[in-house]
Amino acid sequence: MSTRNERIQTILRDLVGSTPDIEGAALVTTDGLPLAAALPQGTDEDRVSAMAAAALSMGSRMAAELKRGTLEQVYVKGNAGYVVMMQAGEETVLETISSSDARLGLLLYEMKVAAKELANLV
User: Which of 36, 52, 74, 82 is 20 to 30 A from 89 in CA distance terms?
Assistant: First the structure.
């Protein structure tokens, strides 16, 4: 039987491997610590985790301040692609990176499925 960490890593690898638009994924704590990642070679997991936590925190405060309800997702779009973050449990965030031509509907659906699985493990 696999450990919890192995199951988390498998979910992330499956998300990246089975969804062509997703180039990398990470599960991080809301305070910025990396739990598991399937990111492209050379990516600094610690830095990515800290930035994801900061972006999600800012998004949550903005949603509350502007009375937009509970934060569901944060998107960052650059000319080379997207970074999408969503809650995956009370204290964890699923983060993905994708190309600029990614099909966001499919990406979000696959992220929601993975986030639900991950939330059940953490």
Answer: 82
d(CA 27, CA 8): 8
Give the whole-angstrom CA distance, residue 23 versus residue 95. Answer: 11
Q: How confident is the model at residue 1 (pLDDT cuts 50, 70, 90)?
A: low
Q: Is the pLDDT of residue 38 over 90?
A: yes
pTM here is 0.90
94-119 burial string, b = 16+ CB within 10 Å, else e?
Answer: bbbbbeeebeeeebbebbeebbebbe
Instruction: Give the list of residues 6+ apart from residue 3 with CB closer than 8 angstroms, or none.
Output: none
Single out the residue of 114, 20, 83, 44 nearest to residue 73, CA to CA. 83
